[in-house]
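Task 17 of the worksheet. Students: predict the tertiary structure of the chain below and write it out as structure tokens. Keep your answer in the requested format; marks are given for formatting as well as content.
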Amino acid sequence: MRDKTRDRILERFSGELKDLIKGLLERLMLEERAIYLEEHPTKANGYYTRDLLTLFGPIEELRVPRVREGHFHPKLIPYRKRTSIELSEAILLLYASGVSTRGISRFLEAVYGAFYSPQSISRLAEVAAEEVEGWRSRPLCTEYYAVYLDCTFLSVRRGKTAKEPVYVALGLKPDGSREILGFWMFGAEGESSHNWETILKELWERGVRRVRLFISDDLPGIEEAIRRIFPQATWQLCVVHAVRDALSKVRKSEREEIAEDLKAIYRADTKEEARNALEAFKAKWASKYPKIVARWVTKSYSLLAFLEHPKPIRRYLYTTNQLERLIKEVKRRVKTVEIFCNPGALEKLLYLVLTQMEKKLARRLVGFAELQMGSGHASETH
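Model answer:
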């Protein structure tokens, strides 16, 4: 039974990925034809369709642009061959690594036997930039059950090389499916409260109106930004990180005992039980670890916000693990590029990685289907 379910998921993911590749190939071939028409006295003449075998399986009815004289053949796909050469990702990876357009042109001709002039590479890179901008500015759902917010750091060259924060937002819909809402880069000044407010304003401008819960670490200015832009939402501080932080500041011999006492707080069934466990934690440890206890008492309203929600879905709401896994995979996928040659190169590669990963997030998390059946609730979209 498990194998059948896995096969169905893989089949659906493969189909969605092929659709994404097909759309990108068709856009790039249109740009190739535009370049060809600038250099040859002929006119565009519609399309013909063909099938193509790729690393991700067969792509059917690929729309290939043609010209009136019939001498144009896109270099992006093999002429009179059924197997593809995967150039679009190669171009982005080389570009992100800092290879010049002339160097990319030489590489493609040597390895793939496909000639692109440096000017053509620049034009194709611009097509990719349009794809990125279109995805980052697309309309979003009206409502999300929760939105996870976090930040990671990647090396980018802007004159000089520096670690820059890359902000990421992941939405959890009322039906339990997830959606990458976007990524943002503001330069190398570090995390900023102004940046978080800018991000939340953009989510509002792209159509988001209701979010029940924002989940994040105790990032600078994030709570204030949430209150200003989404005043009806509540804020959940990541419990897992709060526990790790507390345990890193206590004696090794007492870590296990303190971990169990903290677990009694965030594993409670009700807020009343959690508050009682917190009072017991305070009475036991306040004299020895006053700062740790003070933090848990002061931030208890945000650490325990998830207890206001139905028990079957609480495990998704008390931590940023959903987004952390995503960011970990991003860093694994981009580690081949140690330093990005410019912000645009990083944006293109992040887009490529995130849109591929998003297909895996459409699977509904356990517990939400039952929740919807009980409430008769359906989310609104643009």
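Marker's comment: The CA atoms of residues 169 and 319 lie 14 Å apart. The chain has 14 helices and seven strands.
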